[in-house]
Task: inverse folding
């Protein structure tokens, strides 16, 4: 057996132990854990204390529009079953609310952490993942808010507010060992 084959065979059992046990991959993180959903929009967020900050965002109502064809007059057929007069149809459209507008309280990095350098790091992290396409500014501008929303939405949080869990998923805020 060659030296290379021997090295590969010895390394395989070591590599087999390298799966699982670590933090969730960014594509599988669940950002809804740091969110409190409340009925209505008037409930205040939990009290902030040093190192534990919250903000509130309003999620829009989800409305479904259904359009369907309804028979206005049925088809008329003769004795042989041939259509003498075709049916006439009209389009009926109606809407229904699937989810009411509601407030969500989001655990966020505290304001003193949201420095220009931190926001530039957020922009770099989002740019590296293909969400942020604008120049780095260090400002939480419309392009940054849009990128944050597009990053967080598939992970369970449809909000432009950068959540603490989102910042951790981006690798910008430390994660405690018991959170893994």
Result:
């Amino acid at each position: 057996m060659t030296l290379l084959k021997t090295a590969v065979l010895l390394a395989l059992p070591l590599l087999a132990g390298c799966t699982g046990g670590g933090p969730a991959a960014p594509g599988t993180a669940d950002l809804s854990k740091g969110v409190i959903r409340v009925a209505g929009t008037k409930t205040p967020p939990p009290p902030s204390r040093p190192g534990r900050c919250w903000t509130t965002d309003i999620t829009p109502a989800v409305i479904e529009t259904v359009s369907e064809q309804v028979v206005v007059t049925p088809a008329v057929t003769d004795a042989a079953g041939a259509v003498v007069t075709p049916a006439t149809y009209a389009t009926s459209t109606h809407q229904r609310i699937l989810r009411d507008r509601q407030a969500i309280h989001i655990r966020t990095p505290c304001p003193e952490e949201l420095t220009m350098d931190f926001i530039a790091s957020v922009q770099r992290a989002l740019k590296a993942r293909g969400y942020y396409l604008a120049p780095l500014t260090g400002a939480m501008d419309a392009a940054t808010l849009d990128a944050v929303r597009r990053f967080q939405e598939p992970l369970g949080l449809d909000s432009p507010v950068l959540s603490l869990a989102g910042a951790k998923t981006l690798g910008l805020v430390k994660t405690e060992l018991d959170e893994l």
About this structure: The chain is about 25% helix and 25% strand. The longest strand covers residues 62-73.
